[in-house]
Amino acid sequence: MNIPVGLALYTLRNETAQDFTGTLERVAEVGYKGVEFAGYGNLSAAQMKSHLDRLGLAAVDSHVGLEKLQNDTQAVIEYSLEIGSPYITMPWAYPKSRGEYLELAGILARLGEKCMDKGIQLCYHNHAQEFQVFDGLTGMDIILGEVPSELLKAEVDVFWVKHADADPASFIKKYPGRCPLIHLKDMEDDENKSFAEVGNGIIDFNAVIAAANEAGSRWFLVEQDDCKRPPLESVKISFENLKKMGYV
What we know:
- The chain is α/β, with parallel strands linked by helices and 248 residues long.
- The protein is built from eleven helices and twelve strands.
- The chain has an eight-stranded parallel β-barrel, surrounded by five helices.
- It is globular and about 50 Å long.
């Protein structure tokens, strides 16, 4: 069974800033089944839910920064519940030592418990820095080892795993049941490590997708941090490439 493919709206941040609902319409027209939010524009949860229902788009998850997660926990959870999103993802941190990773893990455990109490799953999104090694463990190993599985899952960004000179498929296989969300993001080449449309770079998506199926992942989310083409063109290319590969 194919895992559904959604779009991380961070890719279209400039477009959503100009016309949020029109951008959602373009995403649905391409064929994406769901979206990951990086802000909601000025739309209330009720308004957002109405647009998603009209367009047949699922609310997959929302990227919410640590400060907002800590200061507005209940409001963040309530918005997610109202739009029907089962996940909230903390998108960024930069601990610089094992002690700082342990401190972050404690914070995530407390937030994860608050989310779980309301029926929401907290996730953590990696970049490259989480693959620095401390006493034989990467930062991701520390986080996932310290926080119980029911309180925290991983949103695996395959580009940043590759950027850290690690293997995305191997990482996903290492944590079965812990990787419900996978960012599909391609790398142009090993030298420049620049962003590319999915299927136009060097990442082995056959291995990634096979590993994700084996690990029980629930959603693929296409993301491209920076695009050389107009971003709407890039997200369409990524979708069409996945279709050619037989994954949508």
